């Protein structure tokens, strides 16, 4: 079995370009399999995976569950909303109790930055970070960059604009790391209040005008406005945000070139993207969803190899 250089997937920052290329190669093979009439393979038949979500998630959790089923793994699903965490149990206690059930791998989402890194130092199972606070979301970045690679053939020299709520986004940071490792040029664009102060130190271009960002890029990855993470008002209203930073078909048609449009979902239709943009020929949003299962299958399969 092929292996990646790490026993865990904690963040894109922790893995090598070779690891990413191996994940892409493996994901492409799995994508062929999941488009066959019989979609299951016995690759992880003796592996037990616990999906532990301390934060709400629909798309990522379902994508991981489907990936695990396609690989024939045994799965345990655990959500904090109906668990002992509400009764005061610590993160380590919770996971140790799950591990007592002889779990080989833990897929975890947590509101605290660094929670998966903390776990990786204390338990023996492989850890996959499914999102830690506003820090990283590595499998989302992998499926995003895989989708660009599939559409354009390469990322080397391509210009990618990440547009929207960069400040509260774990997707943005992981994407910046992944894109740079694969040779792409990165621009971030959004209101000044939604761009973190450290962002320029990551070797990205900063732009405040969405039309200029779209004219510059080959790919626009549009992020959701994360109202649930915003403790204060970062802009006057959603209507005003949409007016200055929303992307519609008219704006896309005004460009002198074709660009690829992406969104990690769920979309606030009419805010970041209008329906005519999200559903246009520019969009590869549904490809991202399909690729998410194949990429997560690849990650789980390769980590099982790293453990072996």
Summarize the structure.
The protein has eleven helices and nine strands. It is of the alpha/beta class and 308 residues long. Strands 7-6-5-8-9 form a five-stranded parallel sheet, sandwiched between helices. A four-stranded parallel sheet has the order 2-1-3-4.
Give structural notes:
39% of the residues lie in helices and 15% in strands. It is an alpha/beta fold and 308 residues long. The protein folds into 2 domains: 12-136 and 289-307, Rossmann fold, CATH 3.40.50.1370; 138-287, Aspartate/ornithine carbamoyltransferase (Rossmann fold, 3-Layer(aba) Sandwich), CATH 3.40.50. Helix 4 links the parallel strand 3 and strand 4. Helix 1 crosses helix 11 and helix 5 packs across helix 11 (285-307).
Shape: globular
* Strand order in the largest sheet: 7-6-5-8-9
The percentage of residues in β strands lies in 5-15%
CATH architecture of the largest domain: 3-Layer(aba) Sandwich
Helix content: 25-40%
Q: How many structural domains can be distinguished in the coordinates?
A: 2
Rg from Cα: 19 Å
What top-tier CATH class of the largest domain fits best? Alpha Beta
* H/E element sequence: HEHEHEHEHEHEEHEHHEHH
According to CATH, the fold-level topology of the largest domain is Rossmann fold
Q: On the 0-100 scale, what is the average pLDDT?
A: 90
Structural class: alpha/beta
């Amino acid at each position: 079995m092929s292996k990646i250089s790490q026993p865990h997937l904690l963040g894109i920052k922790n893995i090598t370009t070779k690891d990413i290329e191996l994940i892409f190669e493996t994901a492409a093979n799995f994508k062929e399999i999941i488009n066959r009439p019989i979609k299951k393979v016995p690759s992880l038949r003796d592996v037990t995976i616990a999906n532990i979500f301390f934060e709400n998630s629909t798309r990522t959790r379902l994508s991981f569950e489907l990936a695990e089923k396609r690989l024939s793994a045994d799965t345990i699903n655990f959500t904090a909303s109906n668990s002992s965490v509400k009764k005061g149990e610590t993160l380590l206690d919770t996971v140790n109790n799950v591990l007592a059930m002889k779990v080989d791998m833990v897929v975890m989402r947590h509101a605290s930055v660094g929670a998966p890194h903390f776990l990786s130092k204390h338990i023996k199972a492989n850890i996959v970070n499914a999102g830690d606070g506003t820090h990283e979301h590595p499998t989302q970045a992998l499926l995003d960059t895989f989708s660009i690679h599939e559409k354009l053939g390469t990322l080397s020299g391509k210009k990618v604009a990440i547009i929207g709520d960069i400040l509260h986004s774990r997707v943005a940071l992981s994407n910046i790391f992944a894109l740079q490792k694969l040779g792409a040029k990165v621009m971030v664009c959004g209101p000044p209040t939604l761009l973190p102060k450290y962002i320029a130190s990551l070797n990205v271009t900063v732009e405040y005008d969405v039309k200029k960002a779209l004219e510059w890029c080959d790919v626009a990855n549009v992020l959701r406005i994360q109202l649930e993470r915003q403790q204060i008002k970062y802009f006057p209203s959603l209507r005003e945000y949409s007016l200055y930073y929303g992307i519609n078909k008219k704006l896309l048609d005004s460009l002198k070139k074709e660009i690829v449009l992406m969104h990690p979902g769920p979309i606030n239709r009419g805010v970041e993207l209008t329906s005519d943009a999200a559903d246009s020929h520019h969009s590869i949003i549904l490809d991202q969803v399909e690729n998410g299962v194949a990429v997560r299958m690849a990650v789980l399969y390769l980590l099982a190899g790293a453990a072996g």
